[in-house]
Amino acid sequence: MGGGHGGDGPSTTYKGLTLPHPKRWHTLTGKGMCAMMWFWVFYRAKQDGPVVLGWRHPWEGHEDHADDHGHGHEV
């Protein structure tokens, strides 16, 4: 179980546990995915932060819309 990668590459043994070194593409892909995750977290914090922190309500902040939306409801 575990793939059977016993001796086919550099590895480190510590207290009887042998850990293989990751390949370069694994490291680069992991760093790229981590960066993408943090960009997404910061983007969502910018968009939703005031609502999550209770500084404003979700329905506030739409003052740029006019009262009539062109549906023929003018009085």
Characterization of this structure:
- It is built from one helix and two strands, in the order ββα.
- It has one helix at residues 24-52; strands at residues 11-14, 17-20.
- Strand 1 (11-14) and strand 2 (17-20) form a beta hairpin.
- The relative contact order is 0.06.
- It is elongated, with a radius of gyration of 26 Å.
- It has a two-stranded antiparallel sheet with strand order 1-2.
- The N and C termini lie far apart (74 Å).
- The protein is of the alpha+beta class.
- The longest helix has 29 residues, at 24-52.
Task: Summarize the entry for a quick read.
The chain is of the alpha+beta class. The protein has one helix at residues 24-52, and strands spanning 11-14, 17-20. A two-stranded antiparallel sheet has the order 1-2.
Spatial sequence of strands, sheet with the most strands = 1-2
Order of helices and strands: EEH
The whole-number mean of residue pLDDT values reads 81
Radius of gyration, whole Å:
26 Å
Helix and strand content put the structural class at alpha+beta
Oligomeric grouping of the chains: single chain
Number of helices: 1
**Principal-axis shape:** elongated
**Strand runs, count:** 2
Q: For the report, how would you describe the main beta sheet? A: 2 strands, antiparallel
DSSP helix fraction:
25-40%
Uncertain stretches: none
Strand residues, percent: 5-15%
What's the N-to-C terminus distance? 74 Å
